Amino acid sequence: MEKIICYALVYVAEGLIAWFYLDYIFLRKRRQSKHIIEFVLSYMLLFGISQLDNAPLNGLCFTSLHWLLINRNYHCGKKTAVIHAGLLCVFVMIAEVMISIIITSMGYGFAEYRHNSVIMVLFGVIISKNMKVNII
Known about the structure:
Layout: H1 2-25, H2 32-50, H3 55-73, H4 78-105, H5 117-135
């Protein structure tokens, strides 16, 4: 249970960073309450999909849901939404590569972040800091 909570916190960090990124770049179309509900439901769905351990499906759903969130909640064109949904996916992939390098240099396997709480916290810190730096 502890590991699921840590992994969920990583998704909360990703969701907040995506929220800040999109709010910084685009003008909102809708009321904030509807906006929050859609983000929460989308990230809950993404968290559930991530538990299937299917990286291509996870990446496709991550990008698709961000594209949908951008289109429904912000003033921008469809191509712009595709670009920014893709950028968010790339930010996460860069963070995961960095985490993989760090974890394997410490003598652990990459999948260790799913079983070791210390590695899980490291994963969360690196992904949130990397996405924040990429956004700024």
